[in-house]
Amino acid sequence: MAQVVAAYGVVSALLALQAGASASSFFSLPRTFPNISACASEASAYSCENTTAVANTCCSPTPGGLVLQTQFWDTYTGLERKGQLLPKDSWTIHGLWPDNCDGSFEQYCDLSRQFDPAPSPAILPDGTAVPAYKGPGVDTFVAEFGRLDLLDYMNKYWVSQGQANNGFWGHEFSKHATCTSTFDVACYGPDYKKNQDVVDFFDAVVRAFKMYPTWEMLAASGIQPSNKTTYSLTQLQSALKAQTGSVPFLGCGHNGTVLQEVWYFHHVLGTEQFGHFKSVDSTTTSTCSKTAGIHYYERTPTSEREVRLLP
């Protein structure tokens, strides 16, 4: 019921925003892509493989050219009573991160686009304070562009543990997208609409996530969540490498014995929004045990829902 009420609230907000518009204009939703026509005449190379500096940073993610598509395996959300449930038979989105080619990274690069209600870290390494965002949730930005389809997908697959989803989305945009050059406001040209870059980033995150159906890739190798069976790190890595061509980062808690996350690493030809993602091996050593059995626990039954059905 809570999910229905929430969905109704977003629809009502969208209808209010569209009040007075004609039926034809209501269904002519604005698009959010950047203005990168100049990139067609630029020399192209995979990020982190270019031999000269990128001339137009709207054409290739720089300096954060090592792009990570990251996912979580949570077994509960802590917000089940509010209808915040995990997707059955699927991992969830963590984010899309622009690491530098050497594995280091920047964060919160543009505080004028700071939409994180609980910045982490709140103080950057250079001593700059990141103020907590107090405004409307970033979900309202998506609704203002009429993208109920995108909101629906995000609420199904980009699910936070212990925090409202929209706060988590604001965190990911502010910490990571503002350090990705292809999402710079300047890349959208003179016709830029407020928060266009935010919606464009969320679209890009979803596109990247769909490349990696982790639950299915593991299940196809006989690896499924279990409260009894454990798996070796080699089993997990081999199953994913067989489908992606590269070894991803696997993150484990509880002294390396409980599987919690996966990061897929890439070099990108073109923009982070639309370019070709070339899979490369993780530059970060797994935190999972190399010797002990690793638990890939089942979800709490009341913490997940079937999301493959129509709403």
TrEMBL record:
Residues 1-23 form the signal peptide. SUPFAM superfamilies: Ribonuclease Rh-like (SSF55895). GO terms for molecular function: ribonuclease T2 activity; RNA binding. The keyword DNA repair does not apply. GO terms for cellular component: extracellular region. Keywords: Disulfide bond, Signal. This is ribonuclease T2.
